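Translate structure to sequence.
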């Protein structure tokens, strides 16, 4: 609405804001989106790292797999730990070329961002044409690449990118009782059988690929993951 001034202006002053109203007015905060993993994030001088040791029977020397993580949105509600790069070291040089190539590709996928958990399934589904092997503990690995995938899976579970399928305490107790009863009735283990964490005559589980399936009372049960044909 326009106001017409008819009298002569003899003075003026600037009206100040009401201090009481200002106190009740919430401060304006700029909304910032959480940083997502992407290929343009520069590598910081310090990264969090974890090293895993594997000793496949098909290799002469042990292999050391180091996975370094970057901490995004540190100190906020959106703080997350994301894998950034992977290195594999060994005294053995027979796998040098493809190991270097594999680590570079995996590191590039990590830095690209998005859902990187698909790498686990891709690596664990690689089969050696010469046949796989059983690692210590009786777990079957179809190839060396598959064991590298198993290590990455273990790491992703440790930092919270993959959910761990933990058995309940009741299930663990039942399996321990079954194992003790089975070993008591089949006490024929020798020193050579100690290479496995499970009874020597156990068969391989189709779910967790571990030689831990025993048959008791006509029911096949895996002592490692709890899978049972009897429900």
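Result:
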């Amino acid at each position: 609405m326009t106001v017409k001034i008819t009298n002569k202006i003899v003075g003026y002053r600037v009206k100040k804001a009401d201090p009481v109203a200002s106190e009740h007015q919430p401060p304006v905060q700029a909304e910032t989106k959480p940083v997502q993993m992407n290929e343009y994030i520069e590598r910081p001088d310090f990264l969090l790292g974890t090293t895993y040791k594997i000793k496949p029977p098909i290799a002469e020397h042990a292999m050391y797999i180091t996975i370094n993580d970057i901490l995004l949105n540190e100190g906020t509600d959106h703080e997350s730990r994301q894998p950034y790069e992977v290195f594999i070291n060994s005294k053995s040089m027979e796998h040098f070329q493809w190991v270097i190539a594999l680590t570079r590709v995996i590191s590039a996928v990590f830095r690209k961002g998005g859902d990187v958990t698909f790498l686990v399934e891709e690596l664990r589904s690689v089969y050696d044409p010469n046949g796989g092997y059983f690692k210590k503990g009786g777990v079957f690995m179809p190839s060396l690449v598959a064991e590298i995938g198993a290590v990455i899976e273990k790491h992703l579970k440790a930092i919270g990118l993959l959910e761990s399928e933990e058995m309940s305490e009741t299930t663990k107790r039942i399996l321990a009782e079954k194992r003790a009863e089975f070993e008591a009735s089949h006490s024929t283990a020798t020193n050579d059988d100690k290479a496995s964490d499970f009874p020597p005559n156990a068969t391989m589980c189709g779910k967790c690929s571990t030689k831990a399936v025993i048959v008791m009372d006509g029911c096949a049960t895996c002592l490692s993951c709890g899978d049972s044909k009897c429900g």
